[in-house]
Amino acid sequence: MIIRPAIPSDAPGIAAIWNDVILNTSVTFTTETKTTEGLIEDIESRGHGFQVAEDQGQLIGFATYSAFRGGPGYAHTKEHSIQLAPEARGQGAGRALMSALEHAARQEGVHSLWAGVSGENPDGVAFHSAIGFEQVARLPQVGFKFGRWMDLVLMQKFLDLSR
């Protein structure tokens, strides 16, 4: 398995993984699928803040971060997304992706990373807990998808150990 920064030609593979999650799971509350063009823009603008996992030439997952909220006061706080192809889960790709993403974030001066995890995704909560994220809030019924309301679990990890 190789972990590396995403490049524009990864966009179709990223879209395939992400859109499957969007269309078929409650892991994310969004219903808007990702486009190759939009992902190319994200890859080009985020640099090392967009990492992919590749196994035998196949894209098996990605992790990226973006602004937590607008405004200069939030510049050192990022929210991340991580998704794996079903066959890659439980094989260490998630941990490897997050390690690379955290390294890139530290290099950029990010103080903390946030994860917004669906309350219907206990595996996602467990994964983030196992890699050092702490649950700081549970927002009841803030997401709506598949005809039902869902909770959002907010988790945070401080990257700047001098806090």
UniProtKB/TrEMBL annotation:
The keyword Acyltransferase applies. It comes from the Bacteria. It comes from Thalassococcus lentus. Keywords: Acyltransferase, Transferase. PROSITE patterns: GNAT (PS51186). Pfam families: Acetyltransf_1 (PF00583). This is GNAT family N-acetyltransferase. The lineage of its organism: Bacteria, Pseudomonadati, Pseudomonadota, Alphaproteobacteria, Rhodobacterales. Coiled coil: none annotated. InterPro entries: Acyl_CoA_acyltransferase (IPR016181), GNAT_dom (IPR000182). Residues 1-160 form the N-acetyltransferase domain.
